[in-house]
Amino acid sequence: MKKGILFIAVVSLALITFGCKPSKEDEEVRNFVKNYVSIMQAVYAEANLNLLVPFTAEKEIKKVFPVIQALKATDNVMKTEILAFELEKSKVKGDTATVRTTERWRFWWQDAKTGAITKPKTEEQYRLEYHLVKTGGGWKVDFVRNRNE
Question: What domains are defined for the chain?
């Protein structure tokens, strides 16, 4: 009886450890999302929407546009820190993919010239779902859905 339970435990552990490894495609979209998050940090830090163009569909750029316009209008930049980033799930189906994350960000606005903080530091936790499309051999963010809303 003890050998049977031990065998089931070992097989279960092996399935959990080796059976849940992301596929090459899943790994590719997960890495894309990790890089995309870094690009978003640069977009806010430089108040430069053009950095998103190669990686983002127009409808998602339109969501970020008002923030960048507000930063430019007030001669500010937004600084960010990613305090936590967890890839939860990814799914690739042909030329589309979804990647779910949990993210915790700290952000604040600074005067672009002096560096003085103009909006205090704030922390937010997000449960996001990135919807990706493959275009021209590479991935782009089609849209991002906040799973908290």
Answer: 24-146 (3.10.450.240)
